[in-house]
Design goal:
This protein is an alpha/beta fold and 181 residues long. 34% of the residues lie in helices and 22% in strands.
Length: 181
């Protein structure tokens, strides 16, 4: 499985090497560059060229790492229990799967885009370290371990607006995209 660029995305040799090295080493690929250099488009084209589905997680300033795993809606469960609704005893009815959960349990390999990681607070990348390393996480509400059936190809983009933590950077394969000349 090799990325060679596509008709819509002309990749430099360095970029192709970075993508293919990240895939071979099974490490997240961190793509930095100015806005408009094609970082997000790269993930779309990698997925298309490899014939894999793309899951996109667009990070905002309010995004928490937990949202990528899952969210538990305790308020809805409480309301439903007060109203006597069915299914309240099954806590899994109140879990909303995040993009990492979807990527880990998807049938077959996927490309997971974590877009604009530098928009979130400084702790966000560090909060994902263990999950990205081990490709698993624990759901406390149900007591189950969610483990990646097939390791997703993880592409993380950054507009270089904030410095990312060193521990996070050490776990990623890195490439900087310049504006084309």
């Amino acid at each position: 499985m090799q990325f060679q660029g596509t008709d819509q995305y002309v990749a430099t040799d360095d970029l192709k090497m970075a993508v293919n090295a990240a895939i071979a080493l099974k490490r997240p690929l961190l793509i930095k560059g100015e806005p408009g250099t094609g970082k997000t488009l790269l993930a779309e084209q990698v997925a298309e060229s490899l014939g894999l589905p793309l899951l996109s997680w667009n990070v905002k300033s309010t995004t928490k790492a937990q949202q990528g795993l899952y969210e538990y809606d305790a308020v809805s469960r409480l309301r439903d229990s007060q109203l006597g609704a069915e299914g309240v005893e099954d806590v899994s009815n109140y879990l909303k799967k995040g993009k990492l959960w979807e990527a880990f349990t998807h049938e077959g390999q996927v490309v997971l885009l974590i877009d604009e990681v530098d928009k979130a607070d400084i702790e966000f990348p560090n909060d994902l370290l263990q999950e990205l390393d081990r490709m698993e996480f624990f759901v406390y509400e149900t007591g189950e371990l969610i483990k990646a059936e097939q390791r997703p190809i993880v592409i993380i983009t950054s507009n270089n607006e904030k410095e990312l933590p060193d521990a996070f950077l050490r776990r990623c394969f890195f490439h900087y995209i310049n504006f084309p000349d």
